[in-house]
């Protein structure tokens, strides 16, 4: 489960950055907090998986891996933080694509802002201006995530840790279900990305235009095209997609809007309150 002091916007920014296959360095004073949070985000990618370097806790002797040119998710203890500001070879490179997630202080910043110790407010403005991934996730998904995570936090005392974890995973998987539920219609000998994207409403189309070209999505399709895996890989996701498709067929077609998402979330919240 996410740290209680984590703002919802921070959670969504981290999730968006992972989908964008960004270089991410998580920093914390505590080993347990560091590994637990990173593993949580990795689990929330289902049915997709992180196809790049992934090291929940990077030993001090291996810090040079941070200089890798490819995307990564890496965790380091704050005791190793000095490497970021004192290694001349590292500082001489273009590190503008590296994001620092300071778990202990609920902050996500570019490496340059982090090293220059720029005010967090100014850093946040720079992030929103220069890092496209924060704008990629459709607004309707952001609203749904914020409302459902808030509801989960409100009711967590009435739920077991396993229940909280499962509901959180289902929540994030619902984003992929809503956007990709009909992907099999375009999956034959190859996958027709263009037709798949064009089949979506505009609010989701822009997101998929970008997401379908990530290595994360390509790996998913490649595994689905593998004759040895297609019937066993991501079957939970496929079942959920079929269930969602049947639900859509029963409903009167309507345009997905921010207002409709808020209304559905409010209905779910009322149902949760009635159960408790």
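^ structure tokens above, recovered residues below v
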């Amino acid at each position: 489960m996410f740290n209680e002091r984590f703002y919802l916007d921070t959670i969504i920014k981290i999730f968006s950055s992972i989908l964008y296959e960004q270089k991410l360095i998580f920093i914390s004073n505590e080993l347990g907090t560091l590994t637990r949070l990173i593993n949580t985000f990795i689990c929330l990618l289902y049915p997709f998986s992180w196809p790049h370097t992934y090291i929940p806790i990077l030993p001090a002797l291996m810090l040079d891996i941070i200089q890798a040119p490819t995307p990564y998710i890496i965790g380091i203890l704050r005791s190793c933080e000095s490497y970021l500001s004192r290694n001349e070879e590292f500082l001489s490179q273009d590190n503008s694509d590296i994001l620092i997630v300071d778990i202990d202080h609920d902050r996500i910043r570019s490496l340059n802002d982090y090293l220059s110790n720029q005010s967090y407010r100014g850093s946040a403005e720079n992030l929103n201006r220069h890092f496209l991934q924060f704008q990629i996730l459709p607004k309707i998904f952001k609203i749904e995530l914020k409302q459902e995570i808030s509801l989960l936090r409100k009711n967590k005392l009435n739920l077991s840790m396993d229940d909280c974890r499962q509901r959180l995973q289902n929540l994030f998987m619902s984003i992929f279900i809503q956007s990709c539920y009909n992907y099999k219609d375009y999956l034959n000998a190859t996958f027709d990305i263009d037709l798949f994207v064009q089949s979506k409403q505009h609010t989701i189309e822009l997101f998929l235009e970008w997401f379908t070209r990530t290595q994360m999505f390509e790996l998913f399709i490649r595994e689905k095209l593998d004759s040895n895996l297609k019937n066993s890989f991501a079957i939970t996701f496929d079942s959920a997609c079929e269930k969602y498709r049947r639900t859509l067929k029963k409903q009167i077609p309507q345009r997905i809007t921010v207002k409709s998402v808020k209304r559905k979330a409010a209905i779910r919240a009322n149902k949760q309150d009635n159960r408790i």
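The radius of gyration is 20 Å.
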